[in-house]
Amino acid sequence: QPCSDLHGKHFAITAGPTRESLDPVRYLTNHSSGKMGFALAAAAQRAGAEVTLIAGPVSLPTPPGVKRIDVVDARQMQEAAERAADLCDVFIAAAAVADFRPERIAQEKIKKTDDSNRDTLALVKNPDIVAAIAARCERRPFTVGFAAETEKVLEHAKGKLARKNLDMIIANDVSEADSGFNSERNRVTVIDQTGGTELPSSLKTELAEQLIQMIATQAFAQ
Ligand code: PMT
Known about the structure:
Layout: E1 10-15, E2 20-23, E3 26-28, H1 35-46, E4 50-55, E5 67-70, H2 74-85, E6 90-93, E7 100-102, E8 123-125, H3 129-134, E9 142-149, H4 153-163, E10 168-173, E11 185-186, E12 188-192, E13 195-198, E14 202-203, H5 204-219
Parallel strand pairs: 1-4, 1-6, 4-5, 6-9, 9-10
Antiparallel strand pairs: 2-3, 7-8, 10-12, 11-14, 12-13
Helix pairs in contact: 1-5
């Protein structure tokens, strides 16, 4: 049973991957399943919060009582996130947003050329969704990011906490077996300005309950 009552509080949560089109049949994406973000949305809703879940392309059912907004690419996710952030008290970025997108989306299927065995793809940087929300002067929600790292997990996560001006970052080592992308379980360290708390490997559904309580304690502390 959740110990903190989040009635009257509004959470906005991003989840899943983004999908960046190259042409009508191809895209760039990653292995995020949306499980972590959806579990957080369900846990916040069960604790009494109003929840807006901004979901990239995933095949998961919408948690009961949660308002879901489906998006495909990073720019659509940013638009939906900015709108939701205007109204929310807590913003949690669990989505694995593509850092880059193809510079151009070809109108027709890109053809391979017969005279070359090489090709190059021009990419441009996507907007940083969570950093833009954390940089707000007005209507800035308590802003929580995730850090998906494969090495120097704590060092890189602390760098992102500072660079993106976040209130909290949840670091996961995505190279670990049975953790991170598309797993039922995750093992994370919660980091804020005061230090880090390592949590044991747990089911994402259980971890989400614990994370929502930790976030609520920080966000709504008097
Ligand atoms: O979806 P699952 O299969 O359950 O897997 C869960 C997860 C591993 C995807 C999740 O726990 C996680 O770590 N999500 C963040 C993944 C990520 O892209 O991390 P990052 O270190 O690249 O980004 C740092 C933070 O900035 C994240 O909060 C991310 O949402 C945010 N970001 C990144 C780039 C961008 N353009 N906009 C962003 O908002």
